[in-house]
Every structure is written in C-alpha cells, then in structure tokens.
Write a structure and sequence with these properties.
27 helices, E_motif, DNA-binding, DYW_dom, PPR_rpt, mainly alpha, DYW domain-containing protein, 6-stranded mixed beta sheet
Length: about 525
DNA sequence: CTAGGGTTAG
C-alpha cells in the first residue's frame, strides 16, 4: 500500500547522516500518506537519534494526533515541544491548539495560546475555530476583535472561521458586521466563503438574505446548493427546497448524500410526503447515491409526522442498515405527535438500550406519558432518572441586543435588567391570558406542585429572553432568539400569543429548526 | 521542507 514510502524509508535508513530535514520529510511523508503507525514509529526513532525535532516535523505528528483523536499521544508530544523550547513557535502551537480543540479540551488550547506574546494570523484563526468547535462562539467573536486590536490582519480563512462562529450562535447583527467587513476589505467571494455566508445568514434566521447571497455567487458547487436546500428545509419552506433540486441539476451539478439528507429533511418538516417518497426512491436508481441511516431516518420522520406510523414501522423492519438512536428518536417523535403511547414505549426502550445515559430520551418518554395522563408511568421514568442521577442538559436561550449577546437560563436572575424583565413578563402574561393563553404545565418535568410548576414554566429561558427583547428593542422590530434545546410546547404557544398581542415577528432558532411567529401563527404549522 | 476554510437526521 505504501510501496513508495517503503522505498523512501529504505533509502532514508541508508543515510549516514540524518538531519532535521530528512527526518521531517520521512515523518511528514507517513503523515500525509495516512500511515499513522509508521509516522509515530519514525518520530520515536527521530527522538532517539538525538537530533532535535523542529518546527517542521512536530506539526506533522501533532496533526496525526488530531486526526486520530489521540489525546494521550498529543499530550506526550506537547511535553516534547516544551523540552525543545518551541512553545512560542506559531507552527507548532497552531497544530497543538488545533489538536486540543478536536479532542474537545479547549482549556488546554487556550492556555497554550495565551502563553504566546505574539501570534500569527493562522494561530489566531485556529484558536477562533477551536472556540466555535467547543461550543463557545461568543468567545470566538471576542478573539476576532482582539486579533485586530493587536494589529494582526485577518485573511479569508480567518474570516470563514468568524462566519462559522456567527452561524453557530445565530447572531444576525454580528453576521452583518462581518459581511460589511468582508465587503470593505474586498475579500473575493470564492465558493467556500460564499457557501459559509449562505449558511451563516440562514442560520441567523434570514433565509431570504441567504438566497440573495447564493444568487450573487459566481461559483456554486454541490456544497453551496446543499446548504441552500438545507436552509429552506429548516425554515419550513420545503417547497422551495424541493424546487431547487432540478435547478441544481440543470447547472450540471450532481447531488451527493448530504444533498439528499437536506431534501428529505425539508420534505419531512413541511409535510411533503409524496415528494419525499419520490426523491427517496430515485436517489440510488437515478443518481447512484445509496441511502444510509440518515436518509432512512428522514423517511421515518416524514412518514411518522404525517401520521403514517405503520408505513414508517414497515420501513424500519425492511431496511438493511444498522439501526441507531436517531432512527428510534424519529419514531418516538412521531409517536409523541400522534399519541401512540405503546409504540412510543417500544421506541424509547430501544433508545435507552442504545444510550442509557442520555437524559433526553427519558424526558421525551416522560412527556409522552404526561400528555396521555399516565402519571404513574411518568413518575416511574422520573424515578429511573433520579436513580441513575441523570440530569437534563441545561437549556439556554440567547438574544442579541446592541451588538451584545445576552444569555438566559431557567429562573435566571443574573441579568442586570432582571427586575424589569420579570415585571414585563408578569404584565405580558396578564395580557396573553386575556387573549386566551393557558399555560400548559405538562411540559414541566419536576416533582413540584402546580403553583411551583407554573413559576418554573413562567421563567423558562425562552420567555425571559423574549421579555428582555421586548423591553430593549424598538417597537415593531423583529425579535430573534436562539435556544440550544428544542423549544418547549408551552413556550411555542406563548410565542404565538406574544406575536399576536405585541404585533412583533419572533424568530426562534431551536436545536432542530426555525420557527417564525407572526400574527399568532408559526411557520412550522405546529408540525415539529 | 511546514499551518488554518463550506453543506447533513434525531
């Protein structure tokens, strides 16, 4: 397999004097060829040879650690870096930061980064990407500002990383600033930057601006088209997503696996059952793309949401692909919508078997029991959860006001305007109740009495963020919020009423999709 | 002799 490298290695072994260059060519050669074993082996020989590893060789081995997620080896090499006195070297540190971030230990990455008095544009870029990767895009955006303050001029790759941070956090105002920056500094919209921008605007809540950017791009490839199709999907505009497909084909671009995931997702979230079936049936026959578990999951979701749960079961039984938690999750979701309690139990059991530590599965089943009034079963699930010390993932909601991102958790009192927020909420609830809003305590998973439940529900992070948005943004302006979990059923109803009573458009990005609330209705048509 | 960039389910 690595015949040519074997020859190189034989030749290399014959060198009477090996220097840093010949070592690094050999180590790097194995790394590039994906031969990790030999890469590490040669690197160890290198260390033993007494020649000091340098700024050229080390990044190769560190990148192998990143690609194999070998944190242990990564830390070992970090200690070698220290011994070689290369902790201020941009190439080496950038590689280490990248390795730590892919291994999800952002603290180690940041510590290294902070230890450098001067950092080049690549090292900054890697650090910015690391923050986004590890779930702190706010920090990524702060770093972008710091970088410029220190006089480091961002290039296109740096900007793509910032665009990604905006996309991930959904910060529309920041997104526009970054866009202005790109235009002002005359970065050309190549296909990668262009695609990242399409994705950013869509994920910041504006699928129309995403489309404008898309239309303005000179070059588009299958990734660009897939990003646009996916965007229509998660904004609930399935028809537009489906319409893009023939347009894409006409430009001579062929679909890949992800294009079909995006298309099927769009169909399932807009109730386009026939269109979805047709695409699913044609993907292998006409385009040579073999359906994998994700495509099957979309189909289970598509059929299940539409109430065709038995068809969806049939599909699961007949499929020749290994079943995973996502698949059972889709079935469970359908059971939740259509009140199929017994089948839900079966799906939940499969899910819990696969992932006994995932609290979300228990919560979903518990909510299904709650909706069906099966309190005893619900109590059993809760008991199971507390027995295993399973905690729900904490929910957060973000809102961007005055170019600052404000974050709320349930019952949060840490915001400087906390008092005003709760007063607004109280006032708002009175108004909503007059319009017919009834709080739905079924969605509260706590063993507390009704009054406490109400208090809890009242202070969900979504509601706090919306109340804050109402008091801190101009009347009539759109309110955009982002949540890390799925929006709860009561908050969904709440948003509809708020949009009605306050004449505001509210755009909510939750963990799964966008909800556009306007005049008392949601773009998801309650089909989520 | 080196480095950092875009799409996807539940």
């Amino acid at each position: 397999m690595h015949k040519s490298l074997d020859d190189s290695y034989a030749l290399f072994c014959g060198f009477s004097e090996k220097n840093a260059v010949s070592w690094s060519v050999m180590v790097g050669g194995y790394a590039k060829a994906g031969d990790f074993m030999n890469c590490f082996r040669t690197f160890k020989e290198y260390l033993r040879s007494g020649v000091r590893p340098d700024t050229y060789t080390l990044p190769f081995v560190i990148r192998v650690c990143r690609d194999t997620m070998d944190l242990q080896m990564g830390r070992l090499i970090h200690s070698v870096v220290y011994k070689c006195g290369l902790l201020l070297d941009d190439f080496v540190v950038a590689a280490l930061v990248d390795m730590y971030s892919k291994c999800k230990v952002i603290g180690d990455a940041k510590q290294l980064f902070d230890g450098m008095p001067k950092r080049d544009v690549v090292t900054w870029t890697v650090m910015i990407g690391a923050c986004t990767e590890c779930g702190d895009p706010t920090e990524a955006l702060v770093l972008f500002d710091q970088m410029r303050e220190e006089g480091v001029v961002p290039d296109k790759v740096a900007v793509v990383n910032v665009v990604n941070a905006c996309a991930k956090i959904g910060a529309m105002h920041k997104a526009k600033l970054v866009h202005e920056y790109i235009v002002k500094n005359k970065f050309s919209f190549d296909v990668i930057l262009g695609t990242a921008m399409v994705d950013m605007y869509a994920k910041c809540g504006s699928v129309d601006v995403a489309r404008e950017v898309f239309d303005g791009l000179r070059e588009k490839n299958v990734i660009t088209w897939s990003a646009m199709i996916a965007a229509y999907g998660y904004h609930g505009q399935g028809n537009k997503a489906v319409d893009m497909f023939p347009m894409m084909l006409r430009t001579g671009i062929l679909p890949n696996k992800i294009t079909f995931v995006s298309l099927l997702y769009a169909c399932s979230h807009s109730g386009l059952v026939e269109e979805g079936k047709q695409l699913f049936n044609s993907m292998q026959k006409e385009y040579g793309v073999k359906p994998d578990i994700k495509h099957f999951t979309c189909m289970v979701d598509l059929l299940g949401r539409a109430g065709k749960i038995d068809d969806s079961l049939k599909l699961i039984e007949d499929m020749a692909v290994e079943k995973d938690e996502g698949l059972w999750g889709a079935l469970l979701g359908a059971c939740r919508i259509h009140g199929r309690v017994e089948l839900a139990e079966m799906a939940a059991k499969s899910l819990i078997e696969l992932q006994p530590e995932n609290a979300g599965h228990y919560v979903l089943l518990s909510n299904i029991y709650a909706k069906a009034g099966k309190w005893k079963d619900m109590a059993k699930i809760r008991e199971l959860m507390s027995h295993q010390k399973l905690k729900k993932v904490p929910g957060w909601t973000w809102i961007e006001v005055d170019n600052k991102i404000h974050r709320f958790s349930v019952g949060d009192h840490t915001h400087p305007l906390s008092k005003e927020i709760y007063e607004k909420l109280k006032y708002l609830l009175k108004e909503l109740e007059i319009s017919g809003y009834v709080p739905d305590t079924n969605f509260v998973l706590h063993d507390v009495d009704e009054e406490l439940k109400l208090g809890n529900l009242f202070s969900h992070s979504e509601k706090l963020a919306i109340a804050f948005g109402l008091i801190s943004t101009p009347e009539q302006s759109t309110i955009r919020i982002m949540k890390n979990l799925r929006v709860c059923g009561d908050c969904h109803t709440f948003c509809k009423f708020v949009s009605q009573v306050t004449s505001r458009v509210i755009i909510v990005r939750d963990a799964n999709r966008f909800h556009h609330f306007k005049e008392g209705a949601c773009s998801c048509k309650d089909y989520w």
